[in-house]
Description:
By secondary structure, the protein is an alpha+beta fold. The chain is built from two helices and two strands, in the order αββα.
Amino acid sequence: MSHALSIGLSGLNAAQLRLDSAAHNVANAQTPGFRRQQVAQQAMPQGGVQATISAERPPGVSLEAEAVEQMSASYHYKANLRTVQVQDEVMGSLLDIRV
Length: 99
């Protein structure tokens, strides 16, 4: 797999995890004692990101913050998807040149 493609895919996975986590937080906001899930992202040495979920200490969920998180994750998803699409277009162009 190419370097740009693997970076784009890791970004897509991280953005999807952020979307899923925010949806989980909204769905469980009224559950007594529920702790908000938070996604931490860390840059990987070979490129891309690694995302992990952790529970925050203080219980409670801010629906406004979750809406912002969902919008932000959606924009990150679209940007990473565009990276994957451009990589596919470049590889297609290279194959057309070689043929």
